[in-house]
From TrEMBL:
Main location, first listed in the record: membrane
UniProt membrane topology term: Single-pass membrane protein
Lineage: Eukaryota, Metazoa, Chordata, Craniata, Vertebrata
Location(s), subcellular: Membrane
Signal peptide positions (record): 1-18
Transmembrane segments: 832-859
Name assigned to this protein: Synaptoproteinsis syg-2-like isoform X1
GO annotation, biological process: heterophilic cell-cell adhesion via plasma membrane cell adhesion molecules; homophilic cell adhesion via plasma membrane adhesion molecules
Annotated keywords: Cell adhesion, Disulfide bond, Glycoprotein, Membrane, Repeat, Signal, Transmembrane, Transmembrane helix
Ig-like domain: residues covered: 28-129, 134-229, 524-623
Source species: Solea senegalensis
Residue numbers spanned by region Disordered: 869-892
Family: Belongs to the nectin family.
Length: 917
């Protein structure tokens, strides 16, 4: 206890010491900042008093001269804020921040901010520095010295404070080559208003500087970044020089115009033109904004063949003069030939050209080999004039009218000339006359005769035949001529009747055709056999029979019909066949087979028809349906008005009358239900239903199987499963307190409290289990039923003491059931208040007990250091045993073990506060 007191005293002294330190550190002071003001703009002088004393007066003061004369500019005096000169009224008594209008450099200097309080006078000084934004001008000038063109860029910066710094940038980099760029700067000039001016000049020869702009960079405190001023300067550009020779016609003669061209250069290029010929040509000089400069010379084409012309160019961007030269060509004519690629050359060197009779607007082009600028063409036919309708235009012969054999065929000569140069070509034109094609079909002696003629052709045509694969025939041809034209006739013999359609094609080849001509004749096949197949069924003595009919209509002779079953070669010989000859000569054959349906059930029945009109036998197939088991189904039905369940097994048999049904239930050994069989006919279909009625508890969780035995040995089984249901419990969803019954094996009673004088109070329930539905009811201990709404037990009227008691709720589904017991208590507001008060009192007593036990333990441990008697420890140990557990008493503690055992003691305090809320 003494240690606790000392600890608290030390803590209080430490807090007092800290508070004394904090109080001693809060001394008043004045907070001011220096100001940099821009001439012509507004600046703010800031001064704040930081302290707790009341300010009696405050002033901004500026010293006027060295005699310590000063002037009050703004502040607080006689309870009012005031201002004079260029300063505004201060913000407040403790904050003398003012706005200053910087009208001249004279406002620069030191300003004193002072505060008078009851504790004394506090002051501090702020210095105002005045700066002025400079005015920047950039000028460009040029001069020529000793034939070299120079440019000077001057950057003049005036009215700035302090003096600015000027640098230069060319292509965003400082000019580094001193042999190209020179920079000269003027002295700084001071003005009467306190500002300064300075200039810098960048000079360079124009032909050595390729950038078209120069930038002046000015650095000054009033500028956050260097001020960049860019101006355009003149630059020299290297020209593109070339020489060009063009031919022009003047007065029917050809002239060469040779031009020396300089484009894209600055300044103009000096151009000289020279020839290695003796004659002096005509010269022309011109300048165009688009094409640049040019110097031209005009030379007669025939007089200056092979002459060399040279252009010489000089420009400041050239390290030496550049030249371009051209040699004028010498003319020649090496030959002339036809443009038509289909022409050929005969043994005498003449061009052979073939034309088709009847063509119009035929153009025959001449291709001249040589380099002459122009030429003249003359043509003759058989050493005479050109025939009518044939015209020579330029180097093209054009036949306007239709081409004729007599008029246009012959030998042509064309001569190409230019001054003394000549070239000749001979053209032998022949005209091809296409044949007249005719095809004829006749039937003779059991054969079909096809004749194909190609008449009156020049030259003779070639006739051939194309037949389908696998078809052959006898063919021959003959040839005749008349007045220079030729005729060819081809004949082929084919069978009169064919099982399929044939197409015979006559192919005619002739030079007048771009592609071979063809004529085709289609020979129809013999009439196809029309085959149909159908089936029908009937019932006799409870057995199903099938009849299949196959009919074939064709030309004579009659077709042969054969029956096959499945994919085997086994034929059916027991069939009924008949043949009928119709008035038009056609024949109809019919065949029928009749058999028991089960004999060929599930197999294919094929009708095969053979006839000479078909290349192979034709088949028609019909499928005999397999005998399927009837449709069997089982179901489980819960009867509404009975406690018994119903298992239903139904079957639909599509069979004849008089059929017996073999339908049974395979049931477990304990089956005690009742079965019944119901059967009815709908036409030839028999519907049978076998039912089995049983209580749910008898077969719950078991399988019930229905077996159907078909007549032909087919057995069908269907099984239905009877579900296993359960209701595990009925839960109360409201907050409850479990109460154990007097008997250990009895169900737990749930205690629940309702509020007195409240209506429409509900108790929510939940049924746990897998039943599809259930009946839920609740009643009081006296047997009276309680109103239920779904899973809620409802108390619609006000709750009174009469509603107190034990309620039992039961959920049931057939033989499955589960119950829950609920003890309903009624709580009024007065009882609730008393219970809360009792709870608070219990909590307070518990806290006091804890404090008392803690104090007692501390005192006991202090006394144990002076007196190590074993009796006191035993007494404390016995008192700290958990109540209600005498069998877990601590063992006796030996005196030499008392110290270790004291550290292992544990204390347990149990607070049990029970409430029905």
């Amino acid at each position: 206890m003494r240690r606790s007191g000392l600890l608290i005293l030390g803590l209080l002294l430490n807090v007092a010491h800290c508070l004394g330190i904090l109080g001693a550190s809060e001394e008043p002071y004045v907070e001011v900042t220096d100001v940099t003001a821009v001439l012509g703009e507004v600046a703010y002088l800031s001064c704040r008093y930081q302290g707790q004393s009341e300010v009696q007066s405050a002033h901004w003061v500026r010293q006027l001269n060295s005699r310590l004369k000063s002037k009050k500019l703004a502040g607080f005096s006689n309870g009012q804020l005031y201002s004079s000169s260029d300063l505004s009224v201060p913000h407040s008594v403790n904050n003398l921040t003012v706005r200053m209008t910087v009208s001249s450099v004279a406002v620069e200097g030191e300003y004193i901010c002072e505060f008078e309080t009851e504790e004394g006078t506090l002051l501090d000084r702020a210095y105002v520095t005045v700066v002025a934004r400079p005015d920047i001008q950039v000028l460009v000038s040029a001069e020529t010295v000793n034939g070299t063109h120079y440019q000077s860029v001057s950057c003049v910066v005036g009215d700035g404070r302090p003096a600015p710094q000027i640098t230069w940038l060319v292509n965003n980099l400082p000019p580094s080559d001193p042999q190209i760029f020179t920079v000269s700067e003027s002295d700084v000039t001071a003005h009467s208003n306190g500002t300064f001016s300075q200039s810098s000049t960048l000079r360079f020869p124009t032909h050595l500087q390729d950038e078209d702009s120069v930038t002046c960079a000015v650095r000054h405190p009033t500028l956050p970044n260097p001020k960049l001023t860019t101006v355009r300067v003149e630059t020299y550009a290297r020209p593109n020089v070339t020489i060009k020779a063009e031919m022009v016609q003047k007065g029917g003669n050809e002239f060469w115009v040779v031009s020396c061209i300089s484009s894209g250069g600055r300044p103009d290029t000096d151009i000289w033109l020279s020839l290695n010929c003796d004659e002096e040509p005509q010269r022309e000089n011109s300048t165009d904004s688009d094409t640049g400069q040019s110097s031209s010379v005009v030379l007669p084409a025939t007089a200056y063949e092979g002459c060399n012309v040279t252009c010489v160019f000089d420009h400041p961007k050239f390290t030496h003069t550049e030249s371009r030269a051209v040699t004028l060509p010498s003319f020649y004519l090496s030959g002339v030939q036809l443009i038509n690629s289909e022409s050929t050359i005969d043994g005498e060197g003449a061009e052979n050209l073939q034309l088709r009779e009847g063509e119009s607007e035929v153009v025959i082009g001449l291709e001249v080999t040589g380099n002459v600028p122009r030429y003249d063409v003359t043509c003759t036919k058989d050493a005479g004039p050109l025939p009518e309708g044939l015209e020579l235009v330029g180097s093209y012969l054009t036949v306007h009218g239709p081409v004729e054999q007599q008029r246009h065929a012959g030998l042509y000569e064309c001569v190409v000339s230019y001054h003394h140069l000549k070239a000749t070509v001979h053209i032998n034109i022949t005209v091809h006359v296409p044949p007249r094609i005719r095809v004829d079909l006749q039937t003779k002696g059991g054969h079909r005769v096809i004749e194909c003629s190609a008449d009156d052709a020049v030259p003779a045509a070639n006739v051939s035949w194309l037949l389908p694969k696998g078809v052959s025939g006898v063919s021959w041809s003959n040839f005749t001529s008349h007045n220079g034209s030729h005729s060819v006739r081809g004949v082929i013999l084919l069978p009169a009747c064919s099982p399929r359609e044939l197409t015979a094609e006559c192919v005619i080849n002739h030079p007048a055709f771009e592609e071979p001509e063809s004529r085709s004749i289609t020979l129809p096949h013999c009439a196809q056999t029309n085959i149909t197949i159908n089936s029908s069924t009937d019932w006799r003595h409870g057995e199903q029979f099938t009849q299949v009919d196959c009919s074939a209509d064709s030309v004579a002779p009659a077709p042969v019909i054969t029956w096959y079953v499945g994919n085997s070669d086994n034929s059916i010989t027991s069939n009924l066949s008949e043949t009928e000859v119709k008035a038009d000569g056609s024949v109809s054959a019919r065949s029928s087979v009749h058999f028991l349906s089960s004999l060929y059930a599930g197999q294919n029945l094929t009708c095969m028809v053979e006839h000479p009109s078909t290349e192979a036998a034709e088949n028609r197939t019909i499928h005999i349906p397999a005998q399927k088991a009837p449709q069997l189904s089982v179901s489980l039905v819960r009867q509404q008005d009975s406690h018994l369940w119903l298992a239903v097994c139904s079957v639909c048999e599509c069979r004849g009358e008089g059929v017996e049904t073999n339908l049974t239930w395979v049931l477990p050994e304990n089956a005690k239900g009742q079965t019944s069989l119901h059967a009815e006919y709908e036409g030839h279909s028999l519907k049978t239903r076998l039912t089995y009625q049983f209580p749910l508890a008898l077969h719950e969780g078991q399988d019930l199987t229905c077996v159907y035995q078909f007549k032909h040995g087919v057995t069908e089984r269907r099984t239905v499963h009877v579900p296993r249901y359960y209701i595990s419990a009925v839960r109360v969803l409201n907050h409850t307190t479990p109460l154990r019954n007097r008997h250990a094996d009895a169900a737990v009673i749930h205690r629940l409290t309702l509020q007195e004088n409240h209506h429409n109070q509900r108790i929510l329930l939940r049924v746990e289990g897998n039943v599809p539905q259930y009946d839920l009811s609740c009643k009081r201990s006296g047997g009276a039923l309680v109103r239920m709404e779904g899973l809620e037990m409802v108390f619609p009227s006000e709750i009174t003491e009469e509603d107190r008691g034990l309620y039992t709720c039961c959920a049931s589904f057939y033989h499955h059931a589960a119950t829950v017991k609920i003890q309903v208590e009624v709580m009024s507001e007065s009882k609730l208040f008393g219970l809360i008060a009792l709870t608070c009192l219990s909590v307070a007593l518990t806290i006091i007990s804890i404090l008392a036990v803690t104090l007692w333990v501390c005192c006991t441990r202090n006394n144990r250091k002076q007196n190590k008697k074993r009796g006191s420890l035993s007494a404390l140990t016995s008192q700290m045993q958990e109540p209600g557990s005498p069998e877990v008493k601590k063992p006796a503690v030996m005196e030499n073990e008392s110290k270790e055992y004291a550290q292992l003691l544990s204390y347990s305090i149990v607070i049990d506060v029970k409430s029905t809320v």
